[in-house]
Design a protein that fits this description.
By secondary structure, the protein is mainly α. Among the domains are: about 150 residues, no CATH class; about 80 residues, no CATH class. The chain has 16 helices and four strands. α2 packs across α9. It is elongated, with a radius of gyration of 31 Å. The N and C termini lie far apart (about 80 Å).
């Protein structure tokens, strides 16, 4: 019986091990969102259609006249010319082959539409349904070209917070909105705040970085396309490196540094907005008392000591981020 129980134990371990190994292998497998052929249709278009070129797509479809004007003036429009030396880009690069979309645009239909006073439009349902396909597929249409272009910082996109949360390129970039496809830096706050409502509220607090005043922009600290930093899509590797791009006087190194707070400014400051001065997470002295619960003051009475504790610590410790000068006691107490 004892031998049977021993074998049963090892058998159970072996079965569980095989189960977990199979599970891990399954997790590592790459699976398409849909069957391969259906997924190809999502981003390539109708497999039974033919490519006919932009001129043939648009010459009779007057509903897209403004889109064509904006496209021709854009960076991608300049790539229609072989003389540009750039990869060719046209309507079908994103929307898929267009032969089925225009096959019904006969001279008779054009004449009938002109007589009725309406714009002739193509059968857009035969093209790639960009608005309704999954966000990763939408982005993949753009990444077909832009991931290979060294002028675009997209090498971190697939692992970025935006990509993982199903944000697509067209959520921020209006491809047909104007001839300028890039988001103007002055418009980034309004664009980001559509999703980040909590940050928008923080910028309404009495003390905030001057983002609403358009003196600082979201992209000064964050890279929307992805970042090597593991935290909040920061442009730099750490929070401190990001903050000291502007606050260089706080960078150091100092002979006397503020203990373990040198790598993350958020230990004391909130980055977007606060009800407290200097974007502090709590008012002085209560912020300091979270780590320094007792503060002996030599040569004072108990009443005076209490009053001293509940004033601002930085009235005495003015170099609170770090100092190269020792205090009168010979230690670094950030007094200068």
């Amino acid at each position: 019986m004892e031998r049977f129980m021993k074998y049963r134990k090892w058998l159970a371990i072996a079965v569980l091990g095989a189960f977990f190994a199979a599970g891990c292998a399954a997790l590592k497998e790459s699976r398409p969102i849909l069957p391969i052929k259906e997924y190809e249709k999502l981003i390539v278009g109708r497999l039974d259609a033919d490519y006919i070129g932009t001129d043939n797509c648009l010459k009779a479809c007057h509903a897209h006249d403004k889109n064509r004007r904006d496209f021709d003036m854009s960076t991608m429009g300049s790539q229609l010319s072989r003389e540009s030396g750039l990869p060719l880009v046209n309507c079908e690069s994103c929307h898929g082959p267009g032969s089925l979309a225009v096959e019904q645009l006969t001279p008779q239909k054009l004449a009938a539409d002109a007589k009725a006073g309406k714009k002739t439009t193509c059968d857009y349902k035969t093209l790639v349904d960009i608005k309704n396909i999954p966000a990763p597929a939408q982005s993949l249409i753009c990444l077909k070209c832009h991931a290979a272009n060294a002028t675009f910082n997209l090498h971190n996109w697939n692992a970025s917070t935006h990509s993982i949360n199903d944000v697509s390129c067209s959520d921020c970039h209006r491809i047909h909105g104007s001839h300028n496809l890039k988001v103007k830096v002055r418009d980034t706050a309004a664009m980001c705040e559509r999703c980040h409502q909590d940050v928008k509220a923080a910028f309404s607090l009495p003390n905030h970085h001057p983002v609403p005043e358009k003196k600082v922009f979201c992209t000064d600290c964050h890279d929307a396309h992805g970042s090597a930093s593991a935290d909040k899509l920061l442009r730099r590797d750490t929070v401190k490196e990001t903050c000291t791009q502007c606050h260089t006087e706080k960078e150091g190194p100092f002979l006397y540094e503020h203990a373990d707070l040198t790598d993350d400014c958020r230990a004391c400051h909130t980055p977007h907005g606060s009800v407290n001065n200097n974007l502090l997470t709590a008012r002085e002295p209560f912020l300091c008392l979270q780590c320094h619960p007792s503060h002996p003051i030599a040569g004072t009475t108990t009443a005076e000591q209490k009053r001293a504790v509940y004033t601002r610590c930085s009235d005495c410790h003015s170099q609170i981020h770090g100092s190269d000068l020792p205090s009168p006691s010979g230690k670094g107490n950030f007094i200068q």
